[in-house]
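Need the bound structure for sulfopyruvate, inputs here:
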Amino acid sequence: MTNNKTVLSWIDEMKELLQPDQIVWIDGSEEQLEALRKEACESGELIKLNEEKLPGCYLHRTAVNDVARVEDRTFICSKDEKDAGPTNHWKDPQEAYKMLFDIARGSMKGRTMYVIPYSMGPVGSPLAKIGLEVTDSIYVVLNMAIMARIGKAVLDVLGDSTDWVKGLHSRCDIDAEKRYICHFPEDNYIISVNSGYGGNVLLGKKCFALRIASYQGKNESWMAEHMLILGIENPQGEVKYVSAAFPSACGKTNLAMLIPPEGYTKAGYKVWTVGDDIAWMRIGKDGRLYAINPEAGFFGVAPGTNEKSNPNALASTKKGTIFTNVVQNLDDNTVWWEGLDKNPPTNAINWKGEPWNGKESDEKGAHPNSRFTAPAINCPCISSEFENPEGVPISAIIFGGRRAQTTPLVYQSKDWNNGVFVGSIMASETTAAAAGAVGVVRRDPMAMLPFCGYHMGDYFAHWLEMGEKLGDKAPKIFNTNWFRLDDEGHFIWPGFGDNFRVLDWIINRVEGKVEANETAIGFVPKAEDLNLEGLKDFGVDELQPILEVSNEQWAKEAEGIEEFYKKFGDRLPEELHNQLETLRNNVK
Ligand code: GTP
Ligand code: SPV
Ligand code: MN
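Answer from helper R.:
Posting the output first, comments after.
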């Protein structure tokens, strides 16, 4: 399929090392993919779902010990340990290669090695980049076929170029003790062994499009971010684009596809989805920041997705979708998850593959991090700019997290540098998207803590430099928090579609149409400026408390930030020290 010497010699190396029975190049054709689906169904790797209700849809269950990203087994293998920084796990590259090759040696005996050429971003786009993944998993091939642009066309664009990323994935024995997800940013190399779960094995996604790409972006003056991208169309038909970084399972897919409240839709407002997880952003010819979504599909959280919370995501899963670790309803061979509806199946199989009765069982049927892999083109609100190779101009960047207290519903930073500070101090409660405790507040700068492929102090410096280059064309930076709780532990803000009310305020701020209250941390809406029309049981009295900024709480927060900043030593930009000092003075 290619004459590219660097590609061919690496595939030879992989063949030597992994010793597969055969090698299959993925050309991207529907016939080849269909044959693989059949084969996976015969072996039990996939289950074909009801063709009438869910055409072209399949169910897969991963091993019970392999259901989320494994941050403590994810490594950045830079030559110098210091370059990985204090927030990443590090291994010496030579030692890591040796260890990983020893684990992977001979692991594909009796198996097929699939070679997947893929493009992150529209094939041939100036913002796109190419990778090759070898894998022994048909599940990975079929997921990559949805999540990226794959096949022969990618190799044609690559030609003789050496600018591509190597990705070795081998399931080995799914041994959790020998599970490693390693990145070699200086070599454009990713190696993943002993896992079969999404974020660990779909190497184009977090491994390439964030960890490797963030490092490339620093060196090449662009940005790879854990951000959704959406377009907001006003009744005059003008569209403004915003990107937003929230940590895993904190609402990116939901915000990216939201349907505005009735009053807004009647008036002619619309939301268009460009991306739901990752944004690659570059300064365009006009000096503004332009973003593409490097992915071609959505690897979305299933639980909580329903006709009310996210009808567009649900619609996206109705054909050509792979479901992972959800409930199989045996009555009609469809799928179910917690929060889909109030009618769990009684004759079903849970995510572990055991018989499950949703009316009687106390256990959850779907894993909290169960997922759907759906083609982006299925999404009813997919943007007309989704395939635009130049990307879309970004007017505002939103940071956000899951905080029961302290952080108000929304605030605007004072300027770009202050916005970088706001991103750098983000904190959020952990979720089921990664193995480990759930609900613990941790600092997660720019929602990139698990995904930044180099020293995070240098990453902050890169953000500051991008701001200098953008000058007065820089997007405005905001922070949101949909997750404030009342004394009884209920969410105060209705969230989901009603988050459009906050987006509306953000766009009004960008356009200079609305005043705001200045607080210690930034500009907060005047309560009367958020449109609450049509909300039931929620008025200014309910809104006021979640707009408040408590100087006492933020003084405490400043202490936590100082503690966190200490980690970065002299690689924390001076500007961020100054920003912290300003916050301290403001809350006095
Ligand atoms: P990753 O794919 O892991 O990066 O997650 P994500 O950021 O795309 O999160 P997603 O939109 O899938 O939402 C994760 C969980 O948060 C789901 O259970 C949602 O129901 C819930 N959620 C999303 N938006 C809101 C909101 O506005 N309010 C509340 N209360 N919950 C929300
Ligand atoms: C996340 O955890 O942020 C995800 C899912 O989007 S995964 O692909 O597993 O990283
Ligand atoms: Mn994500």
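Comments: The two ends are 66 Å apart (CA to CA). The chain has a mean pLDDT of 98.
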